[in-house]
Design a protein that fits this description.
Length: about 450
Amino acid sequence: MNPHLVAIFGGAVSGAEAAFQLALRGIRSVVFEQNALPYGKIEDGLPKWHARLRDKEEGNINEKLSNPLVTFVPKVRLGQEIDFQDITTNWGFSAVFLATGAWRDRPLPVEGVDEYIGKGLYYQNPFINWYNHFHEPGFSGEQMEVSEGALIIGGGLASIDVAKALMMETVEKALAKRGIKVNMFDLERSIVKVLEANGLSLDDLGVKPCSLVYRRRVKDMPLFPGDTDTPEQIAKAETVREKVLMNAQSKFLFNMLPCHVPVGKIVENGQLAGLILRETKVENGRVVELPGTDKEFRSPLVISSIGSIPELIPGIPMKGQTFEVENDECCRLKGYENVFALGNAVTGRGNIKESMEHGRSISESIAEHYLVDAEGSVSGHFREKEAVVSAHITSLLNRLESLTPPTPERVDSIFQKIKSLQVQVGYSGQYHEWIKAHLPVRLEELVEGH
């Protein structure tokens, strides 16, 4: 057996793939996961209407993490249950891989606005986490209230998902008041079609749509990360972006407010009651704010969806909002010979697809396919980009071979510590039994006829 032993923090897309690639080469790894389940944003960030895709991708992770050469340690967070300096200096692993992802929302750039989190302001990551799980019997997580006429600050596919979730929740409640029972899966196909089937409109229901606010033009939205090196490519990208948005609006009836940025807040009775928005224009590729154009946009709810960044972990050097790494192909953490970053910890992006591709652009064909088959495009993207992760692991293995593996005595010491951590959280070492016991109740299990 290969004498090296690698610690991996994060069991989702990047971490599971890293463990799998190491196992293929006969190298043991220990995967430390902060949650009970290792699925990351597939479970808590991919909206729950993607049920089949979620189950498929979680099955892929299960297959990788249940490999005999992979040891799973749930409910252990780096920087809390395990100290970063301790594990890199004292434990004795050959190497440490950081695949902790990007879970922290980029702060909304309005002075003092975070004082109103939970008081008219939500951030995207906790909001979608709540949305994915609030239906569960006995749900004990943070409760959130959905309001009509919400403002969403963003511009990417994740912000469109927030708009869809808001519109489906408000329409479902309005229909229920009329005695019309529908569920999320009905509405996700198209709110418009559900309303038409019942001879209704948003006006009839008295539902005020939410509005997505973006600082640039619609054709600039980050919905198509293909090549834009030539005028022809730029024109094609702009057309696809406009089509993606138009398709979403036509089904889910949210409003779009381009070329505006938030510059202030409206507070009433201790609650955030809206934002002051300023008009912008795009000049030579840059956003230019237009003085004298400030307007009040009142709303009972603001959701910020402007991107995700890695959480701060004591001891890990940062450069801006991402982990600071050396300028080599291995993404080696600055100041460390055997600590390496993977996925969103480096890119600072919370998009699941980009975790697999490690910051590279998805193909134009997949981006265009999103117009007609979002689940197929994401699933295809996972498969396409696994080769990129494999290539990155190969470069890491070249570095690993120059490092000193732990002695058999040190390996025994490491696994004694691991066993203690597993016992503390009630993990017996039976991976599939643990997953089955901790998998939440799915909405489709509660919906009749689905």
